Amino acid sequence: MAIDVFDDSAKERLSALADGELDFSRSTASCAAWAGNAQLRADWHAWHLIGDVLRSEDLASSPRHDRLFYAKVRARLQSEPVVLAPTVAVAKSASRPFDFDRRSRRWTAAGAVAAGVVLVVGTFALVRPADSPPAAQVARVDGSATTSDAAPAAEAAAQPVAIVADNKIIRDAQLERYLEAHKQFAGTSALGVPSAFLRSATVDSAAR
Amino acid sequence: MNAPDADAPLVERVKQGDVKAFEMLVVKYQRRIERLIGRMVRDVDLVPDIAQETFIRAYRALPQFRGESAFYTWLYRIAVNTAKKSLMELKRDPLVTEAARAGRDEDDDNPRVENEPSDAATPDAVLASKQIASAVNFAVEALSEDLRQAITLREIEGLSYEEIAELMNCPIGTVRSRIFRAREAIAARLRPLLDTREGDRW
Description:
The structure holds two protein chains of two kinds. By secondary structure, chain A is mostly helical. In chain A, 73% of the residues lie in helices and 0% in strands. The longest helix of chain A has 32 residues. Chain A is elongated, with a radius of gyration of 30 Å. The C terminus of chain A is likely disordered. Chain B is mainly alpha-helical. Chain B is built from nine helices and no strands. The longest helix of chain B has 23 residues. The two termini of chain B are 26 Å apart. The chains are: A mainly alpha, B mainly alpha. Chains A and B meet through helix 1, helix 2, helix 3, helix 4 and helix 5 of A and helix 1, helix 2, helix 3, helix 6 and helix 7 of B.
């Protein structure tokens, strides 16, 4: 409030901004001035009130009413997460993702769980009759682990059995600990290779 | 009324994290949104609440606003939806005049409500509104022809600076300056009515 007296050219730019006639780049200074100066805010209100009244007299409203209205909206905006462009949005709006995102994420998780269940059943069907040493190893792990182990297990049933199984065992202790802490994401791994799973699950959990 | 992209710079600023730019849009559209809601909602006490909710929802949804319509058109839809939702929640009866006029799902047997400011609850507010309206009209009459024409073409006809420059046969910079000076002159007449004793909370 006690900042500075703005010269007419600064006010004229704000007036042009009110009409959408100021470049984006030049609007930065005008918006900052508006935010920092009560007189400019009062001008901004007066100009728009004038425009409204010129268009329709019934838009004249009491300044006291307007001021109370803004105070309430401003207070509510302060408790809102800041709206940002996508690149920065993850960090800033993480605490409150939009419903759309949340819903799609939920469906992804549900789908992953369903796929995991199918894969486990399929794995037992495929692996049991074979009964080769690596497959048995895999089956044993399956028995003790969650559905998340289904994907490597299913791959294990195919040609490079030993390699996948080895990978899995090497990674398993770590994965187990991780999944213990993030049980709700357990199914996600069924859809991708283990390394991809690790990365995406980290993002998911951070976003929640 | 406005050129479709008149709010584009401010909207863009909001998308980049400038909350104050959104406040500027609130100040710009609050009266129109309240009038719109006032035509749908019988209870005048509810109007400001629903209007506030409208702006908060718009703020949250702004990342999804792609600029395919004017910002105000988009905001208008949010206001209508917010009002309908509030009415359903509160199980009150709507006067769906706006929706009827827009030819939506409502039948149009509701007579249009007389235009009244939604804060018509108190006589003081009504008086203040009337004083402001007459002060604005008086101040516009007192403007020089150039200034009056410029502000009228802008605010009532909704023309761009370029169009006004063409009509008035002068450079765009002159249009910008005339509109600004017209606003300042009218605002100077309004100031005694706008300044209140409660201190400046703008």
